[in-house]
Structure prediction request, 164 residues.
Amino acid sequence: MGKIVDVLLDGFKHEAQQTRVVIETTKGVKPDHRPVNGMRTLRELSNHLAQSPRMDLAILGGEITKPEQAQAMEKDLNRESVADILKVFDEGVELVVKRLKGMTDKEALEPKLKPFYEQGPPKRWADYLQEMVTHMAMHKMQLWMYLKSAGVPVTMMTYYGVKH
Prediction:
């Protein structure tokens, strides 16, 4: 039987692979596309999604302890090209996997994490790794919808990481 963290990381890596395909699909789409006024542009959303593994890890790991630090890191990680946005994403995914890979089940299940924005008692890495997957999936669908609204012929196969 494998370790709990390995099972959770399998799910994380699977979602990351699918997310990468959706980000790649933004190549050639106007980066300033905005479905409705007041929403992020395609580039802004792509950056946010690509940054999420690194940002989430920094917040959960205690590297970021206040909103201003998160905003500064987000600004620092912003990129212009899809290729550079994908590099940020790949590096963040690699950091998450590296940080959690050597973790024991006891460490994964120990309630000792409390990000600056969280209310209530500390939670476990096992809880937050699932939240990281959900965070990616939510923005992956949002980006997929942006592509649809821009007239890109994406399908659910794109959402599930199948390249055309």
Summary: The mean pLDDT is 95. The chain is about 65% helix and 0% strand. The first helix runs from residue 4 to 24. The chain has one domain: 4-26+40-159.
